[in-house]
Design a protein that fits this description.
The protein is an all-alpha fold. The longest helix has 17 residues. About 7% of the residues have low confidence.
């Protein structure tokens, strides 16, 4: 990440925050506090970002994306942390087949997906961490029914 990345990201998110109705220009900082409260993050993280002092961490980025109604993917790309090549969008036909494996088939693991997509080894942990946030939780296992 460069200073330019931080400047561009902060300018983009600043405009996005305003469009979403948060008054971040008030001297009292009411919009910053409300955004921080709604996102469940510290107000200082919002202030540091808007003052171009630091980029938010991954969890703060995820929470802000939710409140600001943008994808985590877009936030990560706009922040300069990852590129569109790092987080490619799936092909429509691939989504259908991957969503519901057939009988006897299994889903790819995130590690297999990263390798199959050509994610460089030094970036696989980040890919797995980010991609894992988009997967549905595994269904709870049920206890077997007692036989009468």
């Amino acid at each position: 990440m460069t200073v330019s990345d931080l400047e561009q990201f902060a300018a983009w998110i600043e405009e996005l925050i305003r469009r979403r109705g948060f008054d971040i220009d008030s001297p009292r900082g009411g919009g910053k506090s409300r955004l921080a409260d709604e996102a469940g993050v510290h107000r200082a993280a919002i202030t540091r970002l808007l003052q171009r002092q630091s980029m938010p961490d991954l969890e703060t980025t995820r929470r802000l994306a939710h409140v600001l109604d943008v994808s985590v993917r877009e936030m990560l790309i706009r922040s300069g942390r990852l590129t569109e090549d790092d987080l490619p969008l799936p092909l429509p036909q691939a989504v259908e087949g991957a969503a519901r494996p057939g009988v006897g088939e299994r889903r790819l693991t995130l590690e297999e997906a990263a390798a199959g997509l050509g994610v460089p080894a030094d970036q696989r942990d980040m890919f797995i961490k980010v991609a894992g946030q988009f997967l549905p939780a595994a269904p709870a296992r049920r206890a077997p029914l007692a036989k009468d």
